[in-house]
Amino acid sequence: MRRIGAVVVAAMLGLALAAPAHAATFNMDSTADEPDANTGLAACATAAGDCTLRAAIDQANADSSDSTINLASGTYTLTGANDEDSNASGDLDVLSRGFQVTIAGAGARTTVMASTASSTCWCAPSWPSAV
Ligand SMILES: [Ca+2]
Ligand SMILES: [Ca+2]
Fewer Cβ within 10 Å of end Cβ, the chain: N or C? Predict the structure, then answer.
């Protein structure tokens, strides 16, 4: 019995060591264009405690894992200047180097991306694995 327990523990350790980093899932509860308040904390949360698209991308950019961002129905209007590439304003900058970021809408007719600037909504400056 003791031997079986040791084998089970060893197998569990092997699985734990071989498992990829935990993938994060962020579910939107706001269409506002606000950043994550603290990317050192794994949760997607603005200063008001909401999970916005920009906050989710901020957190995905900071995490060392794949991320899935689930958009709720609504119009997501991006604001601010497009002349930066750190996701601080304007277009969304997906920077999760080496990790996949999947963004899923609630439907083509119900999830709308808009921008107050005359530019695209998405930017993945260095890594083609995003969006
Ligand atoms: Ca956070
Ligand atoms: Ca930007």
Answer: N
Using one digit for the tens of pLDDT, what is the confidence trace for 37-72? Answer: 999 999 999 999 999 999 999 999 999 999 999 999
Please state the domain extents for the chain: 23-123
Ion ligand 1, residue ranges at CB < 5 A? 36, 38, 41, 59
Tally of residues, the chain: 131
Distance 45 CA to ligand 1 centre (A): 5
Q: From ligand 2's centre to the CA of 44, what distance in Å?
A: 18
Q: What is the DSSP pairing of strand 92-93 with strand 122-123?
A: parallel
Distance between CA atoms of 59 and 42, rounded to whole angstroms? Answer: 7
Q: Is the pTM of this model over 0.90?
A: no
Q: Which residue has the tokens 């970021």?
A: 101
List Cα–Cα distances, 97 to 15, 27, 70, 88, in angstroms.
25, 21, 20, 17
Instruction: Identify residue 92 by its one-letter amino acid code.
Output: L
